[in-house]
Amino acid sequence: MAHHNDFGKIAEDLAADYLQKKGYKILVRNFRFQKAEIDIIAEKDNEIIIIEVKARSTDIFMLPHEAVTKTKIKSIVSAANHYLEEFNKNNEVRFDIISVLPDENKNLVIDHITDAFQAFDAN
């Protein structure tokens, strides 16, 4: 596996641990629908939270969350709709982004952006 894939997996594991410590129940990781993938689907307070995890080794070019483009949002929303239908979920849905970036001491730091975008942002 390439280094960036290893780093992405580490970041997703870190994000999942972070969410569980915050009281989120992880429902699914790496949910796939067609060509789309949702990194983490969680539940908290009777709300379904769709989480995109973005990790970067540096913020020189852009912050991790800035890599979530309109095209990526469309893909996530499509996969989320499929998940909700497939598992007959009628809960409110929220879309979050978790950014993972090393600090100056090379410790990985999480930035959890709640309600980062809405489904209508995909249009």
Structure summary:
This protein is α+β, with helices and mostly antiparallel strands and 123 residues long. The protein has 2 helices and 5 strands.
Topology:
Layout (H helix, E strand, L loop, with lengths): L2 H19 L3 E9 L2 E9 L2 E9 L14 H17 L5 E11 L5 E10 L6
Parallel strand pairs: 3-4
Antiparallel strand pairs: 1-2, 2-3, 4-5
Oligomer: single chain
What CATH architecture would you give? 3-Layer(aba) Sandwich
List the strand order in the largest sheet: 1-2-3-4-5
With helices defined by DSSP (H or I, 4 residues minimum), what is the helix count? 2
CATH fold assignment: Trna Endonuclease, Chain: A, domain 1
Number of domain modules: 1
One letter per element, helices H and strands E, the order comes to HEEEHEE
Number of strands: 5
Q: Report the structural category.
A: alpha+beta
Helical residue percent? 25-40%
Query: pLDDT average, as an integer?
Result: 88
Q: Ends: how far apart?
A: 34 Å
Biggest sheet character: 5 strands, mixed
Q: What is the 3D form?
A: globular
Contiguous runs where pLDDT drops below 50 for at least 5 residues? none
